[in-house]
């Protein structure tokens, strides 16, 4: 039978099943009721946000995550303080999906929760909602013990205000986690802060090539004559993508000091690097 020909289950029967003593019946009823666009159904699903069973609660929250009904936000704000970890972090997640700024202060309050998943999703939600009131809490989260929390805090700050936390981001260039170092370099590039310049030059020697690529990106964004020598040095990096990005950046800056090193790089063993070098030299009208 074609999916479009499958009849919907009776709405009244489904509403009655929400009172079942068996959680799986309630959860299935919630799942089926989300197909009904009816105020009565919305009221019933919102009521299930108080369900004692996590699976039923999750089904209801998932069904209502696109709802503009303010009661949904109010209910999810309450469950941010639930004793169950999964309910807390999923509440933060759903509030981020909804994007209502009324939730910001409440999410900030759980941003130091003992559960890592809660802290991760709190940072994500604050970034998605995009309220500048969250900046201080996210800067504090840059010092979290967990690298994923730090990474998500950087991402959130990038969404809200990439020009603010320069000093905190510079510290993260020495983070133990390569993903954190990489994201910190990228965001520092977006700040275009000269204050970060010397630290980014040091990062060009990072043991991880992804971090070095991010450092080249940052120096490219900051630009200026001071970036020329470090980028020329990066033309000899062990990883081809670092060399390729360095060549492109030198072409953008346009300082003639880069012409000879770029011409030497035409002999690079990697095809992509050579193509990038040619594009860079075209900026100098060499070809």
At the first level of CATH, what is the class of the largest domain?
Mainly Alpha
Q: Between the first and last Cα atoms, what is the distance in angstroms?
A: 65 Å
Q: How many individual β-strands? A: 0
What is the arithmetic mean of pLDDT?
Answer: 92
Proportion of β residues? Answer: under 5%
CATH superfamily of the largest domain: Leucine-rich Repeat Variant
What features would you highlight for this structure?
287 residues; mainly alpha; Leucine-rich Repeat Variant; 4 domains; 0% strand; disordered N terminus
Q: What does this protein structure show overall?
A:
With 287 residues, the chain is mainly α. The chain has four domains: 7-64, Leucine-rich Repeat Variant; 69-161, Alpha Horseshoe (Leucine-rich Repeat Variant); 165-218, Alpha Horseshoe (Leucine-rich Repeat Variant), CATH 1.25.10.10; 223-287, Leucine-rich Repeat Variant (Alpha Horseshoe). It is 64% helix and 0% strand. It has 18 helices and no strands. The chain has helices at residues 11-17, 23-33, 39-47, 54-64, 70-79, 85-98, 104-109, 116-129, 135-141, 147-160, 166-172, 178-191, 197-203, 209-222, 228-234, 240-253, 259-264, 271-282. Helix 2 (23-33) runs parallel beside helix 4 (54-64), helix 13 runs antiparallel to helix 14 and helix 15 packs antiparallel against helix 16 (240-253). Residues 1-7 have low confidence and may be disordered.
């Amino acid at each position: 039978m074609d999916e479009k020909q499958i009849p919907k289950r009776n709405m009244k029967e489904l509403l009655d099943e929400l009172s079942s003593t068996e959680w799986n019946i309630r959860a299935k009823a919630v799942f089926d009721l989300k197909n009904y666009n009816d105020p009565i159904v919305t009221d019933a699903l919102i009521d299930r946000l108080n369900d004692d069973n996590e699976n039923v609660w999750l089904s209801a929250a998932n069904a209502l995550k696109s709802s503009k009904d303010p009661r949904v936000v109010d209910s999810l704000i309450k469950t941010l303080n639930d004793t169950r970890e999964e309910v807390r972090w999923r509440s933060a997640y759903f509030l981020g999906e909804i994007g209502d700024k009324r939730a910001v202060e409440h999410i900030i309050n759980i941003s130091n929760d003992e559960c890592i998943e809660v802290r991760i999703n709190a940072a994500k939600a604050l970034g998605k909602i995009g309220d500048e009131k969250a900046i201080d809490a996210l800067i504090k989260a840059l010092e979290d013990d967990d690298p994923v929390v730090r990474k998500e805090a950087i991402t959130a700050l990038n969404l809200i205000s990439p020009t603010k936390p320069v000093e905190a981001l510079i510290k993260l260039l020495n983070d133990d986690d390569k993903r954190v170092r990489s994201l910190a370099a990228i965001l520092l590039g977006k700040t275009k802060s000269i204050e970060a310049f010397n630290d980014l030059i040091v990062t060009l020697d990072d043991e991880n090539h992804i971090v070095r690529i991010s450092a080249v990106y940052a120096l490219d964004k900051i630009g200026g004559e001071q970036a020329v020598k470090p980028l020329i040095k990066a033309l000899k990096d062990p990883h081809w993508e670092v060399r390729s990005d360095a060549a492109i950046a030198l072409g953008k800056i346009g300082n003639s000091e880069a012409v000879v090193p770029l011409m030497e790089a035409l002999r690079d063993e990697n095809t992509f690097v050579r193509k990038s070098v040619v594009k860079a030299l075209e900026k100098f009208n060499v070809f």
